[in-house]
């Protein structure tokens, strides 16, 4: 299954479950354990979760103009759309119809139902907005407390740098280079999703992507991800040329090793990755600027793949690297990859 579709379906299922459980909870608060009330509440929650999840994930997320609005304006527009759906659901009264209860003509019941639906939808919408702001996986890790205490994990780390961004910044200006980088990162992130990676951070003109060992080893996903990024940029070349007068070119590096992952900070909490693998990957990216093809992967990373790469690699031997006396064994990929 397509990775983007699989991700949407997982989130869709989560919204439906949350909506149904919320409806059951409301039924319990209203009438205790009375079966009719529980069935009606569950039905309202199921319908609400299904419709709001479908609209959010399969419609609103694909509206580029909406996603470019500020956080509060985006939230307000989404909430207005949600409100229209909620009022329609309340007017149809699916809960009472499924439970076999008499239809309510009370304005009090109608507006209390609207208030419940609005509360759930705002919370769900806020959750989606925060997840989009900090990343879905980071959001779930915060909620579950997975990295509340530091843990050690074996991970692939991919550094991707946009070549020539300094010169572009001088030509495009501050706002222009920001728009250029934003457009480029949005395009590159699609490949990250396709190959089930996790965006760790955007740092200046770099994007850092990571995979746990088990997920990254499948089908050489980190390597395929980088190549897919280059292909996506080539396909979008004419659009970039028209809008910015330049086409982004990327170079990168891949390394594998143990990292310490944990929450850090107080006023602004963040999940950070520390360890030699991060430093080595960054230094490999610096070295990639001097090799044909603009990409370096350590032998340590290559040894962890479950299958050979689907494209030819060149053995570059052992390269000297700052911080390692014995250097590091690396391979590269062709400029056309």
Automatic annotation (TrEMBL):
InterPro entries, sorted: A/G_cyclase (IPR001054), Adenylyl/Guanylyl_Cyclase_3/4 (IPR050697), Nucleotide_cyclase (IPR029787)
Ranges that cross the membrane: 12-32, 38-59, 71-93, 113-134
Start and end residues of each Guanylate cyclase domain: 156-285
One annotated GO molecular function: adenylate cyclase activity
Highest taxon, organism lineage: Bacteria
Pfam families: Guanylate_cyc
Keywords: Membrane, Transmembrane, Transmembrane helix
PROSITE patterns: GUANYLATE_CYCLASE_2
GO biological process per UniProt: cyclic nucleotide biosynthetic process; intracellular signal transduction
Name assigned to this protein: Adenylate cyclase
Species of the source: Bradyrhizobium macuxiense
Taxonomy of the source species: Bacteria, Pseudomonadati, Pseudomonadota, Alphaproteobacteria, Hyphomicrobiales
């Amino acid at each position: 299954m397509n990775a983007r579709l699989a991700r949407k379906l997982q989130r869709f299922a989560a919204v439906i479950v949350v909506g149904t459980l919320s409806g059951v909870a409301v039924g319990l608060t209203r009438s205790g354990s009375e079966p009719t009330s529980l069935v009606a509440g569950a039905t309202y929650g199921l319908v609400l979760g299904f419709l709001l999840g479908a609209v959010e994930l399969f419609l609103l997320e694909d509206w580029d103009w909406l996603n470019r609005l500020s956080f509060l304006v985006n939230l307000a527009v989404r909430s207005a759309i949600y409100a229209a759906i909620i009022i329609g659901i309340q007017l149809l009264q699916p809960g009472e119809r499924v439970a076999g209860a008499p239809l309510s003509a009370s304005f009090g019941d109608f507006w209390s139902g609207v208030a419940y639906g609005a509360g759930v939808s705002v919370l769900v919408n806020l959750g989606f907005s925060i997840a989009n702001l900090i990343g879905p996986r980071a959001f779930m890790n915060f909620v579950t407390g997975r990295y509340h205490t530091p843990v050690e994990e074996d991970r692939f780390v991919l550094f991707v740098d946009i070549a020539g961004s300094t010169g572009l910044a001088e030509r495009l200006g501050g706002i222009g280079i920001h728009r250029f980088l934003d457009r480029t990162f949005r395009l590159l992130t699609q490949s990250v999703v396709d190959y089930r990676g996790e965006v760790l951070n955007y740092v200046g003109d770099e994007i850092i992507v990571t995979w746990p060992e088990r997920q990254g080893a499948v089908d050489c996903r980190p390597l395929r991800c980088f190549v897919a990024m280059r292909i996506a940029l080539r396909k979008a070349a004419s659009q970039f040329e028209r809008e910015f007068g330049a086409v982004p070119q990327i170079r990168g590096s891949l390394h594998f090793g143990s990292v310490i992952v944990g929450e850090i900070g107080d006023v602004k909490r963040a999940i950070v990755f520390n360890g030699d693998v991060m430093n080595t990957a960054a230094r490999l990216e610096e070295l990639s600027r001097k090799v044909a093809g603009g990409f370096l992967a350590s032998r340590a990373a290559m040894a962890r793949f479950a299958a050979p790469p689907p494209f030819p690699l060149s053995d570059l031997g052992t390269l000297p690297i700052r911080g390692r006396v014995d250097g590091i064994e690396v391979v590269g990929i062709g400029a056309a990859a």
